[in-house]
Amino acid sequence: MAKIRVIQFGLGPIGAGVARVVAARSDFQIVGAVDIDPAKVGHDVGRIIGLERDLGVKVSREAAKTLAKKADVVMHCTSSSLQSVEPQLAQIIRARKNIVSTCEELAMPWGQARIAKRLDALARRYKVTVLGTGINPGFMMDTLPIVLTGVCQRVERVRVERVVDASKRRQPLQAKIGTGLTIEQFRAKAGKEIRHVGLTESVALIARALGWKLDRIEETIAPVIAQSSVKTDYFEVQPGFVTGVEQYGFGIKNGERVVELHLRMCVDAGESVDQIWIEGTPPIHSIIRGVHGDLSTAAVAVNSIQRVVAAPPGLVTMMDIPVISVGE
Amino acid sequence: MAKIRVIQFGLGPIGAGVARVVAARSDFQIVGAVDIDPAKVGHDVGRIIGLERDLGVKVSREAAKTLAKKADVVMHCTSSSLQSVEPQLAQIIRARKNIVSTCEELAMPWGQARIAKRLDALARRYKVTVLGTGINPGFMMDTLPIVLTGVCQRVERVRVERVVDASKRRQPLQAKIGTGLTIEQFRAKAGKEIRHVGLTESVALIARALGWKLDRIEETIAPVIAQSSVKTDYFEVQPGFVTGVEQYGFGIKNGERVVELHLRMCVDAGESVDQIWIEGTPPIHSIIRGVHGDLSTAAVAVNSIQRVVAAPPGLVTMMDIPVISVGE
After folding, report:
1. What single DSSP character describes residue B3?
2. CB–CB of A325 and B147 under 8 A?
């Protein structure tokens, strides 16, 4: 069978992780790569993503030229904001390439209806499929809980709790969640630099799959405060200082919180664990251990490629394509 | 929106359970029901499935007449054997009705290739979709583990363990798993009257989703033996006698057991629990509590209806349709 030809758009930590998984697959071939970082442009993609071999493809800063190549799909990994990536997505669509993007807000774009409608119309016109996905949003706090409701006759409420131990993660991630800040410093950054993007999207995806019309979606954000001193490879946090972030996303229907997503990501989280409670008939409780933010976001994105290439044109979510699974 | 019109084909315990879920849904309407049991024929479906109200539809023994009604889907719940239900499925397809069936062997029919090809060709010709599903096979030992591989970059092995506490279940189910038999009596019935059908199908579904070419699939069956005396509402089992059944299904590739499904169903099982281990990168372990054999089989079947009605024609598996979720 012919290999699926892939262009990597964006080579930050997530994009590089995605490209590594693509490069490891025998059924995929990287045929182009785009990034604006002068330190990467002109170098072989293989080296830039940390392989010890060339892939025979140089990183280019010229998106238009790279997108003119023959390819089946573009792996788009640049930003969390749908508004800011719309021009990139439109350019890729006009180049008639399917898209799998890790843009968090694209996992459920219909909350930003005008942008979503424009992208959907464009994708249909150019006969390509566009999907936003990743581990969260895209899987652990939306697709998986939705799939689990399949064993229920009725569901009253969906609760998900995701605890992420950030103590062994890379320095930028520890910094990004506010590690070492004072509470005041955290408050000044919360909702701006400090914020996991995706809870609103996951709440909306769950409500849409279950046919629930929500009154509104709410998000909260607060610091996790060290009770005793915590030390990582990069930070030493004294009691009273911040070790990370705690966020909730609520889906409210008839005044009730029918969807409750809880994300706790800090350097003193203890064990990473995901839990899902489906309150319904029968009630279901699931515990999942082992999911890894970086490895699994890349996995989910790459494992979606074949479904996206095979799907009818348009802007889709994980609910619109058949279930994904690992490839060979 | 117009209601989806449903014909119930078969009103045994599973069929009645399915019909109860259909009857409880505001978006579905039962428009016909077929059964051969003289005790049911001529009575209102509502009463036969245990509701305290009439549904205005009488159970008929005449399949042809019932299938001539206008309907979107037939819920088919008669037998585990694909060979024995083929004529029923063919009759329903020729009546141009989509099918959701709880026939266990239909969950992955491609192991019986000649029958599957005939049904697939017929379904395409009459432009209907045919799906076999249920909680097991159909969900807990195939769809859910396959979905969980989506977070992995590589997978070496999939293991699933399903422990079902049968002590509170209905008498026929306790009898069916061999409760109270001697080991010799069990051995005489094992693989015939005593056997959960579906492990081979689940192994094959997993292998197909993951693109694994198996050397072969193996199944084993053995009695669970009482270590101390066990009492249920229907049986009192002395030590040395049978309390249920233990089965394994193995998918073997290059001499290795790359899929291992373990089902233990007995009246001294302790707590019912499902566990899934994905051995890969990253390794995943999931524990699921609360799944109920009868309630959840009906749920999975009914929750598949909208996906099947919307799907392109042909014989499909759970891997060929978008993820199911609970309806309103």
Report:
1. P
2. yes
Task: Provide DSSP, B59-124.
Answer: EES-HHHHHTS--SEEEE-S-S-HHHHHHHHHHHHHTT-EEEE--GGGGSGGGSHHHHHHHHHHHH
Contact B174, B235 (CB under 8 A): yes
Q: Does A284 touch chain B (CB under 8 A)?
A: yes
Number of neighbours of residue A257 by Cβ within 10 angstroms: 15
Tell me the two tokens of residue B116. Answer: 């599957």
Same domain, B149 and B271: yes
Chain B nearest CA to A163, separation (Å): 15
Upstream peptide bond of A137 is cis (omega within 30 degrees of 0): yes
Look at A300 and B139 and tell me if their CB atoms are within 8 Å. no
DSSP, collapsed to helix, strand or coil, labels residue A58 as strand
Which pTM value belongs to this model?
0.97
- B39 in reach of chain A (CB within 8 A): no
Position B276 scores a pLDDT of: 98
Q: Specify the pairing of strand B242-253 against strand B256-266.
A: antiparallel
Touching check for A148 and chain B: CB below 8 Å?
yes
Domain that holds residue A174: 143-290
pLDDT of B319 higher than 90: yes
Q: Is the domain of A238 the same as that of A195?
A: yes
Asked if B153 and A283 come within 8 Å (Cβ–Cβ), the reply is no
* Domain match, A88 and A155 both: no
Residues A89 and A179 in one domain: no
Q: Give the confidence band of A130 by pLDDT, cuts at 50, 70, 90.
A: very high
Edge to edge, the sheet with strand B28-34 lists B59-60, B28-34, B4-9, B73-76, B98-101, B129-132, B314-316
Q: Is A163 on the interface with B (CB under 8 A)?
A: no
Residue A328 lies in a domain: no
pLDDT tens digits for range B80-108 = 999 999 999 999 999 999 999 999 999 99
Chain A residues within an 8 Å CB radius of B207: none
Nearest chain B Cα distance for residue A162, angstroms = 14
List the single residue in B with minimal CA-CA distance to A281: B295
Inter-chain CB proximity A323 and B323 less than 8 Å: yes
CA-based nearest residue to A298, from A176, A138, A166, A164: A138
Q: Does the residue A324 lie in any domain?
A: no
What is the C-alpha separation between B278 and A120, in angstroms, rounded?
A: 35
Of B153, B211, B295, the CB nearest to A299: B153
Of B111, B118, B276, nearest to B198 by C-alpha is: B111
pLDDT at B314 over 90: yes
